[in-house]
């Protein structure tokens, strides 16, 4: 039976407040567990950090994805070694290179996939600004060249990067659906055409929330058709700290981002249940959320 896991980003647990107050790593992990997340997104380029975090998660019956940011093919080798030792349901790779042409991308993609395939480890390439996948149309050309490429879809980057006009045109929906149809995992935040991360509960952002919920619904259903009967889909709540999060003149955030992460977890779990139920043909629009 297909299943769904909702993770919390440890990067998103950073507060970056003007007063310098931060949660300890133990506090962050305990908060994630007590809130009911299934696991976390873990940086794997720092072995000691990854070992500490995965030990906690394993002890509490949780799971994780291994996040990395290679600048060369060889940069993935130690990540693969760490995953072989510590485990992970997949490697989430942000390609920290910016080739000018599609041909320049090919050695990277082929090299990274060869290393992961040889190790028997699932590899997803994340859609992200200032990376190989920074531009939507360039990424679609990558998919033309690698039609079986598995993506982690962080859709927020393309809404801002392409500055989609509202309402979203059918052409832009179709372009996003091409990306979503290659998604084997999701990173979650809600963007507008001008902001990478808007507050989920503010009334003026409800249209953007509905847009993303619709794309995630499409993505969950697409994945359910493509994936095996015992496959696992992961969704990482990734509401980032400032300057992803908006702040006021005093430098403090305009909303409670940790509460929003837990709200996002509930929204996508409910959406997964709706997508998994044969009695429901489609998910209803989410109700307006109140602060």
Residue-averaged pLDDT, rounded?
95
Q: What's the end-to-end separation, in Å?
A: 36 Å
* pLDDT < 50 runs, ≥5 residues: 281-291
Can you tell me the CATH topology?
TIM Barrel
Number of strands: 8
Query: Cα-atom Rg, whole angstroms?
Result: 18 Å
CATH class: Alpha Beta
β content, as a range?
Answer: 5-15%
Helix % is 40-55%
Give the strand order of the largest sheet, numbering strands 1, 2, ... along the chain.
1-2-3-4-5-6-7-8
The string of secondary-structure elements, in order, is EHEHEHEHEHEHHEHEH
Instruction: Report the principal-axis shape.
Output: globular
Q: Largest sheet at a glance?
A: 8 strands, parallel, barrel
Number of domains: 1
Class from helix and strand fractions: alpha/beta
Describe this structure in words.
This protein is an alpha/beta fold and 291 residues long. The protein has a single domain, classed as TIM Barrel (Alpha-Beta Barrel). The protein has 9 helices and 8 strands. It has helices at residues 25-35, 47-59, 76-86, 102-119, 136-145, 156-161, 170-180, 206-226, 257-276, and strands spanning 3-9, 39-43, 63-68, 91-93, 123-126, 151-153, 183-188, 232-237. It has an 8-stranded parallel barrel, surrounded by 5 helices. α5 crosses α7 and α8 packs across α9. The chain is globular. It comes from Herbaspirillum lusitanum. Keywords: Isomerase.
